[in-house]
Amino acid sequence: MSQVITIGLDIAKNVFHAHGADERGVMVFSRKLTRGKLLDFFAGQPACVVALEACGGAHHWARELQTMGHAVRLIPPAYVKPFVKRNKNDAIDAEAICEAAQRPGMRFVAVKSEEQQAAGLVFRTRDLAVRQRTQLINAIRGHLAEYGWVAPRGTAHMAMLADLLEEEEMISTLPRAARPMFKIMVDMLAELDKQIAVLDREIARRAKDDEAARRLMTIPGIGPIAATAIIALAPPIETFRKGRDFAAWLGLAPRQHSTGGKQRLGGISKMGERTIRRLLIIGGSSMVRQASRFGAPAGSWLERMLARKPRMLVSVALANKMARMVWALLTRNEDYRAPAAVTA
């Protein structure tokens, strides 16, 4: 019997499927496994390459398999899909994962430790709280519009609106059954504001304690939230050969659809880590807004871009530029130095 060199593992909540192949890629076994028997099965296998899709729970199983001596490879699901043959089931998916892992040009995802995943959890929690706050604000505004009150948009006006809901002038125009419901939503909104403030303080503390985060905050447009998000969510910076590779991983590079030697570039690809990409675009937008209001430095790249391009396009282009700066600063262990202005 041929020796297993590569195992493709299709993971789920309770039922898994393993596909083993030898050095020629020929199938050695294809086996369905339950969750309780998965680790016992791999404990009996010789040390080999185990490939999984980089999805929910993949990092946990990767760490468990690494402790057994296996070399674990996490593959983005989009790179596995071309190897799936007709139809779809667990056995076919496991075979596709195994075949994808054997390609010499395949790209893999770095396995994260528990500490790395915990460091990124604060941003996931904050994003969840911010989304819930936005939902509550929209709900309050929408329900008030049903009774003739049009509230201004934005979180800055919510404190004023909460005060108005306590006054007799507005309360008297609302049905008796609706008043306690608005009270509940306003109280929920106040509690979410407190929780978000706690998370913001925690992120600021982490940024202050981390040397790399402090270095990143020297870049204009990058604050404590963006700096700590990059440190917590991005893979090791040595993974990328140059700054453009890091920007492309974030999805800030143009999407290509070129053929026949003719280059066709579209909008940004929006691939990679969406949290970091969003924070960089927000930082770029704040710089563009400030430059539009007070003027950009004379002769700077930002001044030339604003003179001939739309503001949103400049914001995304600036986010791309900031991503390259991040790569350069983390690679060289240096602080940001503002470029000299170009003079005519």
UniProtKB/TrEMBL annotation:
Species of the source: Sphingomonas trueperi
GO biological process: DNA transposition
Pfam families associated with the record: DEDD_Tnp_IS110, Transposase_20
Ranges of residues in domain Transposase IS110-like N-terminal: 7-147
Domain (Transposase IS116/IS110/IS902 C-terminal): residue spans on this chain: 213-290
Molecular function terms, GO-annotated: DNA binding; transposase activity
InterPro entries in alphabetical order: Transp_IS110-like_N, Transpos_IS110, Transposase_20
NCBIfam families in UniProt: transpos_IS110
Recorded superkingdom: Bacteria
Name assigned to this protein: Transposase
